[in-house]
Each structure stands twice: as C-alpha cells, then as structure tokens.
Design brief:
The structure holds two protein chains of two kinds. Chain A is an alpha/beta fold. Chain A is built from 19 helices and eleven strands. The relative contact order of chain A is 0.12. In chain B, a hairpin with a 4-residue loop joins strand 6 and strand 7. In chain B, helix 9 packs across helix 14. Chain B is elongated, with a radius of gyration of 27 Å. The chains are: A alpha/beta, B alpha/beta.
C-alpha cells in the first residue's frame, strides 16, 4: 500500500529538509498560494479528513467555523502533547518527518488566515522537540516560513511551546490555557475555540497527524486521498500497537483495515503464541474489546463504533490471556485519577474513589457491592463534566466490568 | 427576549440570560456552589445540572444560555438524582466535622445534604488528607480539607479585588487551595472570600469560634467605616455585635464590603459610656442622668443664644444632627458647626473605600452645619460625638466655658468635657446616613441602648421639653420627616439620592 504519513520513515536523514524536498516535500505550497483560502477549506472538507487526535471531528468543517470578518488575529495550535496511554504516533512523525507537519501547518494556517501557529509539544518529548527546532530553522532559511513565503505575500511565524507534564493539557482548551501561561484547566464550551480560542481569538487546534496528512491532500487532491479508507472514514491512519504482539510499533493503514489482520499479520501475531484476550483499540480511554469482538472489528470510526468502542487516537493495546483485567483497570484508574485536573467535582472525586476501590479489590479486600458501586460512580461521572476525562475512565470501568465481570468477582470476599 | 419554560412556568428573559438566572427570576432555585452572580462562570461544581429537552446530555444551568422555546426541568426525579450524585462526590472527601465547624448553620453543603441525601455515605475508603489550618493572611484561615474547590475565592481575588493572591495547586482529589509562593491573602477586601465560601474552608479570624451562627440575629444597617455607606447586616447575639456582613445594594456596594469597615464594630461592644458624667472638683465622675440633665438645662438657660455654639457630627445620624439643630433653633442659636473623624493618611480606592471616614458628612452639611472653625472662647459648646483630632486641639486651646458632650464611647473629647450625656450608638437606634453620593440610607435598631444611654435625639428632645421649647421627644422618623420632607418608606430599598427627591 502507498504510504502517506510514513512514506519517508525508512529514508536516511528523513528529518532534513533536503531529503523531504527530494521526495516532493513543500511542492504543494505553490498550488496552495494559487488558491483562495476558502477553496483550500473546501478541498479539505471534500477529502473527508477527520481529526486524528481522538475525537474524529471533520477537519475542514472545523476550519470553516473560524469567523473571517472580524479584526482579531487567528491562530493555529498544533496539538503535539501526545499523552494518551498506548499512543506514540505523533512522536514518530515529529522525529522522522517533521517537515511534513510543518508543510501541513502552512496549509492549515493559510486556509484559516492565521499568521501565527503554535506547536504545543509534550514536555517529555525532548528529542522530537530538537528535531522540530532544527526543521523549523531549515524551513525559515528556505523561505517556507517567515515573511512573504515563496513570494506569495503570505506571512507565517511558528513557535514551539513545551508542556510541563500534564495529560490534561492535551485537551484542546486546557492546552490553550497552558499556552497562555495559566493552569491547564479545560474551558467551558461554549464558546468554542474556533470563535474564542487562544488569547480570546479564533483558533483551530489540530493534531500532528491530522496536519501531516494535509500536504498529500493539497498535492494530490481530495479524490486521491479518498481512494484510501472507507467512504465515511477516508484516508490512512497511524496505529500505535503495543502489548503482547511480536512486532509492536507504528503501522500506517488505510482506515477500515481489519484489526485481526493488524494483529496476526502486520504485527506478527501474539507473543509466545498466547491467546488473545482483549484489545483497547484507540488509546486507553476507549471501551475495551473482547478477543471475539476484536477479531471482527475494522479500524475505522464507524467500524469500532459498531463494536461499542472508538477509533480514538489509534493506540492499539493488545492483551493476551495472562493479563489480569482487574489490575489492568486499576492501572487505568490510577492514571486518570492522577491526571484529573481536579476542576469538576464528579471527575475529581469519582476518579479517585474508583481508584481506591480498585486498589482495595486488588489487595484482596474487595467486598460484595464494590462492583456495583464502581458502575454507579462511572455512571455519575459520564457526561457530567467540562471535558471528557471523566468519561475516559468511566468507559473503561463500564466495559471492563461488563465484559470481564467474573474476573472481578473472583477477587471479592465471598459472602 | 426568549421565552422558555422552566418546570412548567413560562418565563421571558433578556437575551443572553443563563438558564440559572432565568430560573431565579421565576423564583425557581437551582442548587449550586461555584456560581456567583458577580463572578465569572466556572462551571466546576456541576451541582446546577438540569435536564433540557432535546439536549443529549444534562447541562449546567449556569453556563447554558436561555433560548426561545427551551423546555427545562429542574425538579424531576432524574434531575434530583443528578444533583444528589454530584453532592455525593463533593461529600466523599469532606470531613464530617460540622460540630466544630464555624460554617455549621450557614453551610451550603450541610443544607443540601439535608435536602437531598440524609443517608450514610457509601464511601468506605480513607479520605484525602490536606492541611487543616493554613494561615492564608492576616484575617483569613483555611481548612483545606473542607474546601470543595469551587474557586469562588480565587475568582474574587482575580476579578473583584484584582489582587490575585489565590490559586489551586496539585491535581485531582489532591487539588489544594493556596496562595502563590511568598504571597499572603492580604488585601483590603479579603473577608469577602469568607462570605462567598459556600463551606467552612475559609473562616474569618476575628469571627471564628466566637459565636455559633444559629444564635445570631441579623439587622439591616449601614457601615459607619467611611462615607461609602455600604449596606450591611449586623449580626448580634445577647447585646453583643459579632460581625458585619455585606447586604446587597447594587447602587452602593453591590454585595461586597471592605475589611476595614466590616471590622469597625468593636466600639459598639467596648469602651462605652453607660452613665452620664459631671465635673466635680475638677474631676469627671459618673452620674445618673437626672443631675446631668439639670446641669445642662441650667447652663443653657443661663447663657444667651449668642454665647452658645452647637457642634454637630459627621459621624452621627441625620436624626441626631437634626434634633441638635432643632434645639439650637429653639434657643435662637445660629452658630452651627460640625466636626468629623479625622484620620492621618486615610486609605482610599476607586471601589468601596473612601478617604472620608465619616458616614454622614453629606447629611450634616445638608442640614446647614458648617465645618468646625472654632470661636468657642468663653462660650458653652453643645457637641455630638465624633470630634476630630484637629478640632479637639482647637477646642482645648480655646478652652470654652463649658463643653456639654453627648458621647457614646470613652475618648479624648470626653476627657475635656464638663458634662457628658451617654448616648446610644447607631446600632442601638433607628436613623439615616447620607453617603458620599448624597444617598440617604436607613439603618435599623439592632440592640437595646446600653445602661443609661439613649439616642442623642431623645436627650435633646428631653432638654427642649425642660426648657419649654414646645416640642415633644419625637420618634426618629418624625424628626426625619420634618427635616427631609419624606418618610422612611420613601427611601426604598436602595436609599434615595437627595436632589432626586421632593426635598429639592
């Protein structure tokens, strides 16, 4: 299959501007500047590209919400705060093909008429940050960034801002707060970022992978992009596979790809020949799939929805028969209670309460009624908060308990 | 102007009104912790979740704009369950120390628990422990375990006092209210954070552990700390004032008051003169009122009007000054001056604190008293409480023949007086002050006058009666009506600005 996002990954010095240019990089800009910004938005809408950060919102539509008839500056924020457990795709793009992202930044910024873009990068990503800094310097030097890019009259400045380690700062409004120098607390919506975003100005926030798909779409057109994937989920997507497989790693696949094929063919099957037990298909916050569900699922927005889960960020966590699902859920509860920003009562208290109950169950002090209490907490958190962090724990609780209840019951003190 | 339906009631509201405010306007109360009408919306407590038809999820009413045709449910079983479940979350890590908590009796959390839950907690785990006694600043203590993280205090310091001392640190259920490193919660309005704290997390150092709130009676009044005239409630019990709380008046102080003003009450409780005083052999000695009154009447009778000076006070009510003026006029006295509290280097700002620390300067001037210039040599001076430092120096220098002082508290002025009539303080009587805006505002009687004290207007009326001046010891309202040409009820809720009245 032709690759879009990862096509240069194997090349030597793929991160340099020379190698990127030699593979056709930055060629789409000429075409871009010949187009009206609105036509760029239309083309991206037509491509069917959806946000690759997790929510899957149609990218072109998001851009079209930015009001153009107001005097405020517009901003692009690239969400490079990749923190969803099990997800490590953006990091690879930034390390191995940073210019693809930069070219995408130029395309998006031009389309929404932004002259400033920010890359908000996870603080722990020291090496990717170095690669981006170097790539930005190259791009400025080559005239792809800065004033009057390639004689087009269009100006664009790009800044990199490092996060300080909070998972919540990957949530788009918390990201903006953090970028503004404030505590990373998600904002109430409405207003939405497209209207009132960074520094109170219209802002588009796109994931690294989303932005990196744009050069291909500009260069080859929406129709070429739509040849990949399914009708409702066009294009390719990177899947970060971790867990009990023989060849974990990043895989760029057309959407709609069978999960079974990914595990058993691309990833070389289960490690040590063990049996598959469960798969988290889209990052740790989405509902877990049983082996049977996973073997029927296709990797696209609709396919996973049909199985009661979500495509999310594409972090595929594969668990074999030796996995203790109670401990796995406890681990997640620990993560989410630690990362809850603490703003909304249900999330602040609910994540911590869940974690404490689960820890007690694992310690052999589980009681009858604990599981129903966990479900009640999940239900009371779900959909009751400013952002979806509470849901990100509620969904695993609900799905683990529904699909592996017997395992949880075996931990409880018998009546 | 959208029209929506809340719990079956139709209500039409201004564009942009929240569902929460729309409900409030139709007298439907929605439980809440973080919402405060004077602060930005935080939307974090989630207690005001309601069910809105055609919306996929429950919505917080504080951040949902009312739209045409919206159908909102705030009291259905479903909504009550939502609110109860949020309350359960807020309660799990909250200490059950109500018996020793100062907020008990006026605690939102306690009230809602009574309304919604009244069952044992399902929480079986160890609660999160946080600092129990944090000295946030000179006037405010914090119990972090009680804090429900509504951020009202943080927003107050960011948005109202604009001093920004407070913040939340840490995450999740370890989130902790604190001050920024090296900072104290030390601003001129810090005690408002205690007022708006819905639980017992923030407590007022001067008030904590002094009195259980259910013993307190509340009387509407006006702060005498400066010429702003902040509307307050005096909280008192058994003849003692324990605190002032701000009372809403959009036209004056909105819902706030300053620390300096709200802590100006101790003079009501302490240092009071509860007996009259007479000078005997060069010494002031306590006396029952009768000999004092006789002495005053005889002195006033002896002197001709031209030898009398009447000194009103910018610290006393319109009624007391009007009574003084009436007595002066009855005796044919024309020398009407007034004194005022004088403070070195008074603090003021563009919010609530005025440099003029007198609650009624505009009132006493309106009554025709002129600022004190002296000229009291060999004269008898009749003065109301509140003689300023400079004026007192001048009085001492001029050494009048006799100083008849109507005073409530021990002071330097009392030391040079020859005759003292003990008067009630404002909190012990009904009256009005005219603030810097020329707004006349009424205060109510919170306490009974202490000891032998009576409101000044009563003493003055008594003197007039004994001098056959043909006026009765009238009520405060009668004096007010005569002087201002209106009744108390004409003042309305926000007071009345002079010049906008018939008085003009």
């Amino acid at each position: 299959m032709e690759k879009i996002l990862t096509k240069n990954f194997e090349l030597k010095n793929s991160h340099t501007v020379e190698v990127y240019e030699s593979t056709g990089g930055y060629r789409s800009l000429k075409k871009l500047f010949a187009m009206q910004p609105n036509d760029v938005i239309e083309e991206v809408k037509k491509s069917g590209l959806r946000g690759r950060g997790g929510a899957g919102f149609p990218t072109g539509m998001k851009w079209s919400f930015v009001p153009q008839n107001i005097p405020k500056p517009k901003y692009l924020c690239v969400n490079a705060d990749e923190s969803e457990p099990g997800t490590f795709k953006d990091r690879y793009i930034m390390e191995l093909d940073p210019h693809r992202m930069i070219e995408g930044i130029i395309i998006c910024s031009y389309a929404i008429r932004a002259n400033t873009a920010y890359i908000y990068i996870r603080g722990e990503f020291v090496f990717p940050k170095q690669r981006i800094d170097a790539a930005l310097a190259e791009a400025y030097k080559k005239g792809y960034l800065g004033k009057n890019i390639l004689g087009s009259g269009y100006d664009l400045e790009v800044y990199v801002h490092r996060g300080a380690g909070a998972y919540i700062c990957g949530e788009e409004t918390a990201l903006m707060e953090s970028l503004e120098g404030k505590r990373g607390w998600p904002r109430l919506k409405p207003p939405f970022p497209a209207v009132v975003g960074l520094f109170g100005c219209p802002t588009v926030i796109n994931n690294v992978e989303t932005v990196s798909a744009l050069p291909y779409i500009m260069e080859n057109g929406a129709d070429a992009y739509k040849k990949f994937g399914t009708e409702k989920s066009p294009g390719t997507k990177m899947f970060s596979v971790s867990g009990h497989v023989n060849k974990p790693g990043n895989y760029e696949l057309p959407l709609g790809y069978p999960l079974k094929k990914l595990i058993y063919e691309d990833c070389g099957g289960m490690k040590d020949g063990k049996a598959l037990k469960a798969v988290i298909p889209g990052g740790s916050s989405v509902p877990v799939l049983t082996a049977a569900e996973a073997e029927e699922a296709t990797l696209d927005y609709e396919g996973l929805q049909a199985k009661g889960s979500m495509l999310g960020s594409g972090g595929v966590i594969v668990m074999d028969e030796t996995t203790d699902m109670v401990k796995a859920l406890t681990n997640l509860a620990h993560f989410y209670s630690h990362e809850s920003c603490g703003q909304c009562s249900p999330c602040r208290e609910g994540t911590g309460w869940s974690h404490k109950i689960l820890k007690r169950i694992v310690a052999g002090e589980g009681r009858q009624g604990d599981l129903d209490q966990l479900l009640a907490i999940a239900d009371n958190m779900m959909g009751k908060t400013i952002c979806v962090l509470a849901d990100a724990l509620a969904m695993p609780i609900q799905s683990y308990l529904k699909k592996f209840r017997k395992e949880f019951e075996s931990y409880l003190c018998q009546p | 102007m959208p029209t929506l339906t809340i719990d079956g009631k139709q209500v039409t509201v201004k564009d942009g009104t929240s569902v929460f405010e729309a409900a409030r306007q139709s007298e439907i109360s929605i439980p809440h912790f973080c919402y405060h009408p004077k602060l930005t919306i935080a939307g974090n407590c989630r207690m005001c979740l309601v069910d809105i038809e055609k919306m996929p999820k429950p919505a917080i009413s504080c951040n949902t704009v009312a739209t045409e045709g919206m159908v909102v449910h705030t009291k259905t079983e479903k909504v009550q369950a939502l609110q109860k479940n949020v309350l359960e979350f807020i309660l799990i890590n909250h200490p059950i120390d109500c018996p020793v908590c100062d907020q008990a009796g006026e605690c939102r959390l306690q009230e809602y628990y009574m309304d919604y839950t009244l069952t044992e907690s399902k929480f079986r785990e160890e609660k999160v422990h946080k600092p129990k006694k944090v000295d946030l600043g000179p006037l405010v203590m914090l119990d972090d375990e009680r804090c429900i993280l509504c951020t009202r205090c943080v927003r107050f310091c960011d948005e109202i006092s604009k001093t920004g001392e407070l913040c939340i640190t840490n995450r999740g259920d370890h989130s902790t209210l604190t001050t920024f490193p090296g900072k104290k919660l030390d601003n001129k309005y810090s005690l408002n954070t205690v007022d708006i704290c819905p639980v017992g997390a923030l407590t007022s150092k001067p008030f904590r552990f002094q009195c259980r709130v259910w013993f307190l009676k509340s009387t509407p009044s006006i702060c005498t700390g400066c010429s702003t005239g902040c509307n307050i409630n005096i909280n008192h019990h058994d003849g003692t004032v324990y605190r002032y709380l701000p009372r809403e008046n959009e036209a004056v102080n909105q819902v706030w008051t300053c620390d300096e003003g709200r802590l100006s009450y101790p003079f009501i409780n302490f240092g009071r003169l509860i007996w009259g005083m007479l000078k005997k052999e060069g010494q002031l000695v306590p006396s029952s009122p009768e000999p004092v009154l006789s002495e005053v009447v005889s002195a006033l009778t002896r002197m001709g009007a031209e030898n009398l000076v009447f000194v009103g006070s910018a610290y006393e009510s319109n009624e007391n000054n009007a009574a003084l003026k009436k007595l002066a006029q009855g005796l044919g006295v024309t020398d009407l001056q007034y004194s005022a509290h004088q403070v070195d280097d008074p603090y003021s700002d563009d919010f609530l604190i005025k440099a003029d620390k007198n609650p009624n300067r505009a009132g006493v001037e309106k009554l025709g008293f002129k600022p004190f210039t002296g000229g009291t040599q060999l004269k008898v001076v009749v003065a109301l409480e509140g003689i300023g430092k400079q004026d007192l120096l001048r009085l001492k220098e001029e050494n009048p023949m006799m100083l008849i002082l109507l005073a409530s508290n021990q002071s330097e002025a009392v030391e040079i007086a020859d005759v003292v009539l003990p008067i009630a303080v404002f909190a012990e009587q009904v009256g009005t002050f005219t603030n810097f805006q020329k707004r006349v505002q009424k205060f109510e009687k919170a306490l009974n006058p202490k000891g032998q004290t009576r409101p000044a207007y009563e003493w003055l009326g008594e003197i007039a009666k004994r001098m056959n001046l043909s006026w009765e010891v009238a009520s405060a309202e009668a004096i007010f009506q005569e002087a201002f040409g209106m009744k108390y009820e004409d003042l309305g809720k926000e007071g009345k600005v002079l010049g906008e009245t018939r008085d003009k």
